[in-house]
Target: Reverse transcriptase zinc-binding domain-containing protein
Amino acid sequence: MCKGACYLIGEGRSIDIWKDPWVPFAHKFRPLPRGERRVGVNLVSDFILFPEYCWDISKIRQVFEPDDVNHILSIQLSPNSGDDRLAWIPNASGKFSVKSAYLTECESRFILNGPCSSKVWKALWKVNIHERYKLFLWKLYWNILSVRAVINSRFPIPDVLCLLCKLEVETARHVFLECNLVEFLWWSSSWALRIDAFAHLVPH
Ligand SMILES: [Zn+2]
Model:
């Protein structure tokens, strides 16, 4: 959940400049130091001039990376902001919702740490085949097709053997590449594929 939360600055007295998320456009909402981190300068309020309620620009430039200086200076300060408070950034309203939390979690799971690079995914989405097949390939790569091994990993089922050969555990790899009956089906299809010749190209 922390991935989507960022502070809205009131007086900045409760926000640690290195530990807390407080710069909406910075990576992970945290600014980077310019050179060594300074000891003793820890709160956002140390960078705000009171009672003018504006950023101490020269101090900010001394402490933070140039990109983050711009990010920080783009944050509007107001004496009417009240206390520092956490907001949920993925929602335009700043309010937390389960849906936006889920989508934020998906972003890291499906975009940042996927089995393929974004280049491969983009190539897949451009291929001139039915959308249904693209989705199928996407699921195959993510290993989320409902084969018995996957189902069993979520809730135990009594039998995980392949429905066709009854000899091996039914994984996606087995069903599409390794099962003897499937090898026969590929070979007897109109493409006459020797699927075992491709198996070494597909990651386990
Ligand atoms: Zn089988």
